[in-house]
């Protein structure tokens, strides 16, 4: 019986038309291009920011660690806005839910709406929050999977990434 199951499994695997899932993203890899719409109705493409450091933060309003880290991420984004483009990507929530959360928290920045998970899927995000730093050439320089806390040197990572090409 075990041999039969093994044979069926081997045949199924060989005939599967589904793409094989690649492992997690890693530093040194090229960040995938994406096109999405933000909460202001503007089209956003990663390639629009080529030549500039990009920080992408994936989050959701139901994610307690996301909500806890958001004031710190927002403050860092404002501090580095001259040299770093920050993209906040909400995963899986409707525009109304996002707007309500933003108003309640008194945040005033555009959010990329990833209700279908297309962008987070491209980046292989399997948990929230996730913060990615992409250098001027479109390469991942730092990846934080999990909550940003005060002991994580995000600001230093941004400064290092900004300075590495200057």
Automatic annotation (TrEMBL):
A Pfam cross-reference name: AhpC-TSA
Molecular function in Gene Ontology: antioxidant activity; oxidoreductase activity
InterPro entries recorded: AhpC/TSA (IPR000866), Thioredoxin-like_sf (IPR036249), Thioredoxin_CS (IPR017937), Thioredoxin_domain (IPR013766), Thioredoxin_ResA/DsbE_sf (IPR050553)
Domain Thioredoxin, first and last residues per copy: 25-166
Alphabetized Gene3D superfamilies for the sequence: Glutaredoxin
Protein name: Thioredoxin domain-containing protein
Lineage: Eukaryota, Sar, Stramenopiles, Oomycota, Peronosporomycetes
